[in-house]
Design a protein that fits this description.
Strand order of the largest sheet: 3-7-8
Number of strands: 9
Helix content: 40-55%
Distance between the termini: 35 Å
Largest sheet: 3 strands, antiparallel
Radius of gyration: 18 Å
Length: 243
């Protein structure tokens, strides 16, 4: 958690508290880890859309992958789920591995369902290549952008004194910037269509732009899987894959 939070803080310090002490271990309980962060007095309310999306676009625009590839220097966690972030020059390849890894964990958590598994394989074999390969085809260059990785209402707030957005509990890595807003398609995240459209104005879709909506929907599947792993027995999300 330290590395993702620190990476965001380096790009745009006003949105994240400074890490005071890197990850440490309790002397009498070596499996318990913690880190100290600057205290921010904040109110738990959704930040104003334009201000928030402006800051988010700044992170995506100004960040630079240290390798020029997609991934992160270390594995981190999406909630309690360990997320592998091995560097990969291909966004299609990286996202496929990420999604397949979460899918396998979801099967272990909620059990097998042949129809569901067949539908997922169709996504891997056909949908992902159709939607993601064009991003790096025909001379197009796709910038790896630092993403928070888990932006929902539980991980954002508003600074009490400055009124600026605050983000925390990051699952950060370098990704296609549109991946970030995939989670906003889920119900209950706190980010409605206003945020989606505001972000789109500030960060125009990657080419081919006509596939923007489909790409965001594809990215949302990863966040649905994370929800099903964290909150087992969520049948409606499985049905969405099949449909």
């Amino acid at each position: 958690m330290v590395e993702p939070q620190s990476s965001i803080q380096e790009v745009i310090p006003e949105t994240s508290g400074n890490v005071v002490l890197d990850e440490a271990v309790l002397a009498d309980d070596p499996v318990t880890h913690f880190f100290l962060c600057e205290f921010i007095d904040m109110r738990k309310e959704m930040p104003e859309p334009f201000t928030f999306c402006t800051q988010l676009a700044k992170i995506h625009r100004n960040s630079q992958s240290p390798t020029g590839e997609f991934g992160f220097a270390v594995s981190n966690c999406h909630g309690q789920i360990v997320q592998s972030n091995d560097w990969d020059p291909s966004w299609t390849s990286f996202f496929t591995k990420l999604l397949v890894g979460f899918f396998r964990m979801e099967l272990e958590t909620n059990g097998r369902w042949p129809l569901y598994q067949e539908a997922f394989q169709e996504i891997v074999d056909k949908v992902i290549p159709q939607l993601l390969e064009p991003l790096q085809a025909n001379g197009r260059v796709l910038k790896p952008s630092l993403v928070h990785g888990d932006l929902w209402k539980g991980n954002v707030a508003t600074n009490q004194s400055s009124g600026q957005p605050v983000v925390f509990d990051a699952s950060a890595f370098y990704a296609h910037n549109e991946y970030e807003i995939g989670t906003w398609r889920r119900k209950g995240t706190g980010f409605d269509r206003i945020y989606l459209e505001q972000y789109r104005e500030l960060m125009p879709p990657s080419e081919p732009s006509e596939q923007w909506e489909d790409r965001v929907r594809l990215y949302s599947l990863k966040f649905n899987l994370a929800h099903m792993i964290g909150w087992p027995k969520t049948p409606l999300v499985r049905e969405e894959y099949v449909s």
